[in-house]
């Protein structure tokens, strides 16, 4: 799925972290994300909408500026 804001994302099942890389180069690393959320993101019609509704403000996040 193409996104105007998200360049890529990855999920680490062992650490339960989901990393979102933006097109500007920033990374948002979400902690304590269960596998089901990563699976749902894989199936999402809009990555940006999924991010806003399911990740942002729902999981602890660390931002690394690109």
Task: Chart the SSEs and their pairings.
Layout: E1 6-12, E2 17-22, E3 27-30, H1 35-43, H2 47-55, E4 61-64
Antiparallel strand pairs: 1-2, 2-3, 3-4
Structure summary:
The protein has 66 residues and is α+β, with helices and mostly antiparallel strands.
State the helicity in percent bands: 25-40%
Task: Give me the number of helical elements.
Answer: 2
Structural class, by secondary structure, is: alpha+beta
Q: Sketch the major β-sheet.
A: 4 strands, antiparallel
Strand content: 25-35%
In N-to-C order, the SSE pattern is EEEHHE
Would you give an account of this structure?
There is one protein chain. By secondary structure, the chain is of the alpha+beta class. The protein has one domain. The protein is built from 2 helices and 4 strands; from the N terminus they run E-E-E-H-H-E. The chain has helices at residues 35-43, 47-55, and strands at residues 6-12, 17-22, 27-30, 61-64. The protein has a 4-stranded antiparallel beta sheet with strand order 1-2-3-4, with helices on one face. The longest helix is centred in the middle third of the chain and has 9 residues, at 35-43. 14% of the residues are buried. The mean pLDDT is 96.
What attributes does this structure have?
alpha+beta; 2 helices; four-stranded antiparallel beta sheet; single chain; globular; 66 residues
């Amino acid at each position: 799925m193409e996104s105007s804001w998200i360049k890529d994302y990855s999920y680490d099942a062992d650490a339960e972290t989901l990393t979102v890389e933006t097109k500007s180069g920033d990374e948002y690393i979400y902690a304590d994300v269960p596998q089901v959320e990563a699976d749902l993101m894989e199936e999402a019609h809009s990555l940006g909408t999924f991010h806003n509704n399911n990740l942002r403000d729902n999981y602890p996040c660390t931002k690394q500026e690109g």
